[in-house]
Amino acid sequence: MKPLPQEIRCKGLGVSEGVVIGQVLRLHDGTQHVYHLKIDEAEVEKELRRFRNAVGVAGGQLQTIKEQAEHRFGQDHAYIFDAHQLILEDKKLLADIEQEISGNRVNAEWAIKVVGDRLLFLYSQIKDNYLGERVSDIEDVMRRLLVALSGKATSNSELSQEAIIVSHDLLPSAVAELDLEHARALVTDTGGWTSHTAILARGVGLPAVVGLRDFYRRTKTGDTIIVDSRNSEVILHPSATTLEQYRAKSVSQSEARVGSEPPAAGPAVTKDGTAVTLRANVELASEFDSVKAFGASGVGLYRSEFLLAKRDGFVSEEEQREAYEKIARVAGAEGAVIRLFDLSGDTFREQAQQLEKNPALGLRAIRFVLANEEVMRAQIRAILRASATGALRIVLPMVADVSDVRRAQAIIEDERKKLGTTTTVSVGAMIEVPSAVFMAEKIARIVDFFELGTNDLVQYTLAVDRGNDEVADWFRTLHPAVLHSIDHSLKAARNAKIPAIVCGEMASTPAYVVLLVGLGATDLSMTPAAIPRVRRTIMGIDARTAYQIVTDCLDCATADEVENLVRDRLTHHWPELFNSTNLPARRPIP
Amino acid sequence: MVERTLLIKAPLGLHARAAAKLVRVVNGFESSVTLRRVDGSLAADAKSILDVLMLAASRGTNLQVSVEGEDEDRAIVAIEELFAAGFGELAPESTL
Q: Cβ contact (<8 Å) for B20 and A138?
């Protein structure tokens, strides 16, 4: 008998929430070894026909992709495929490739590679940021041509119900082509939090773990796999014990997703009567439906920079106004919080920040908008005008202290006067860098609300880049320093009698939610799909016990101590809610 | 042949979307259309998106546009309109 394959656990980055058990479907990303073949004079015509045929096939695929993308992700996401079509129709490109085939008598694959590489080299010589993006578009089109030549279909219409897509690298067009109805999760070797794949996966609520480096080559189609994006982990060939542990977890997840019963709405109330408002984070139009579907109390965080990401860096005031009005309508009576453009090197590479040595500490977020005042003013006008439709609030990303807030407030007030509107819009501050935490009391006195961005708060408090695998062990959400920062910020808000919304990964993860409730958080914003499980968690706990647990956590010296404490106390108090699958894993003692 | 020097007003210059728009418009005419940086450093066939992108023409760049062919008069009008409108990327009331 063949021995059972060994369980393989691989750590990556969970970029879209969820836990899924299923079968691997390997998806080739189109990169293939291209062989150089010399062809006879007589074969040139045949090779040219083969090439033109492939262009036709690829063109047809792109047309379908474009239409699907328009339908699924909205017109705004589809334009990139229009550029792909134009590249494929580019007469000079086609003529160059044909010239390579007939002039040098090589096979079409080799000709595409030679011409494509030459083009990529030329583009890489140009010192212009936005062209960097175009290189991946050219690669995407070249790969499509090569796959079309190989005669392999790239469409995945025959996905089984269980398919978990595993790929080395998923290009935007490949994601758009996926049969998302039947795909259960995405797993890739490359990519990060803001890669296109990650954004699209979050947009359609598909669990995804990326950045697994050399995972793809270890898999076979049909292998059993567990994708646990909450733990940023995939498990190949899971053992019977592991499967059992995960089944319970996965079932509750899928219930949450399918939502057979109408979702509970309104605040979630703990057993001892603390009401917690649950809001939705949204970035894409395709997520708007999920705000109501998952019972969210409005939109707690609208990441407005995604308007730019999908529009190649430009969106007019009118387009913004329309987008914000739509958000206001989706959010309903509870309203929506619009975060001003949080542009940075990693969310928006074609902007100038690419040249910064250290974009995370550079001209980003509130600094970027203050430095580009016209951009900011147009956005403010759009929000002010849209606020006639429904309740909108503005939140200022990454403020360092009151001076950032005052400058922004002056501009908002100025635009309000110019518009001659009497409507006022609440203005809040994102608390996500240590200086803002230290200065929280002062900031709280001059803003209408706080919003705690826990992802950035962890990153900046611990000085650990969340996207850098090398320091993944230092990225510890449950570090006592992080808990103290949250505690301090929430206290400052309470003392100033202003509300504080907590967002980020902490707000969507049950074990962390217990600690947040213990720290007195009563307003959480998260990815819509997480709302049912957070609601269940809050309804199953009591705030008094949560407070005792977190008080002990604040006394800990290390993240390990906090994690151990959380694991023990949560399973002790609420065994029906917590088990080893949804608690931080015990770390091997070094 | 008709020639004009036209200014790029689109906020992000001739980026992918603006370039695509230009190529689509130019492809509707018989005439050949060439874009040149006024310093003479680069020229592009406006019917090739890869060529147009290679110009890396940012906002504020002046481009010399040469149109040659039977429908050159109609073509230059359409191209001028497109440049004037910032490739449809200038907001009605504001420019980002």
A: no
